[in-house]
Amino acid sequence: QSLLPLDRLVISDIHENNETYSLRVSWGGDDAGLLAGAPQPIAGTVTERTYKLDRATIVDIDDVAVVLTNSYGSPDLDPNISLKSWIAVPLRTRSSTIGVLHIRSNKPDAYEEIDRRVVEMIGSQIASGMSAQDAYIRTKAEATERAALAEIGRVVSSDTDLKNVYEQFADILQTIIVADRISISLINDDKTTYRL
User: Is the pLDDT assigned to residue 17 strictly greater than 50?
Assistant: First the structure.
């Protein structure tokens, strides 16, 4: 027997502006065209409601209909309309809410008050893992940037003629910044004109 009735599980990331969210991962059901990482407006969603309440929430089926009307124009257009029960919990770190865990079931009235405590504990574990993963990704990106900047410094200081180092500089810069064109402008002695 499972800990909770579960036919669909979704983890949503809440973006720093608190106005958008994105799908991080899902299991079961239909994502209805949501792409992982693609920002979506948070207003009127269960994600927003759970984030603002800051606690595990059993979503009433009548509330689900309202939320789905906001999201799809009609609850009948929800690809997961057969999922009659919904419980959601904010994923909190020490400093902020970073996402929301959604659990849905085909079974009507599948979740009870005791399930709130269970999903709070599960949410705490997931949030810790997400926070550690995000920190690792940030640290790795920062290390890549620092290495590229150090290499740019080495290349630029290796020759006083910018034309000789431009191609190397551009290649290194492309490892940390996506660009279709890179130009360097030098200000002339008159301070009113420049040259490429």
Answer: yes
- CA-wise closest residue to 84 among 57, 112, 56, 65: 65
Q: Is the pLDDT of residue 161 over 80?
A: no
Q: What is the pLDDT of residues 102-113, one digit of tens each?
A: 999 989 889 999
Q: How far apart are CA 130 and CA 48, in angstroms?
A: 19
The string over 61-85, giving b where at least 16 C-beta atoms fall within 10 Å of a residue's C-beta and e elsewhere, is eeebeebbeebeeebeebebeebeb
Cα gap 45→38, rounded to integer Å: 16
Strand partners, 92: 97
H or E segment at 103?
A: strand 97-105
Q: Structure tokens of 39? A: 């920002």
What token pair was written down for 116?
């709130």
Task: Quote the mean pLDDT of the chain.
Answer: 84
DSSP secondary structure string for all residues of 132-196: HHHHHHHHHHHHHHHHHHHHHHHHHHT-S-HHHHHHHHHHHHTTTS--S-----EE-TTSS-EE-
Residue 1 is predicted with a pLDDT of 47
Give me 101's structure tokens. Answer: 């865990």
Q: Which residue in this structure is represented by tokens 């910044």? A: 177
Q: What angle do CA 60, 96, 50 make, to 5 degrees?
A: 5
pTM recorded for the entire structure: 0.71
* Rounded distance between C-alpha atoms, residue 60 and residue 44, angstroms: 15
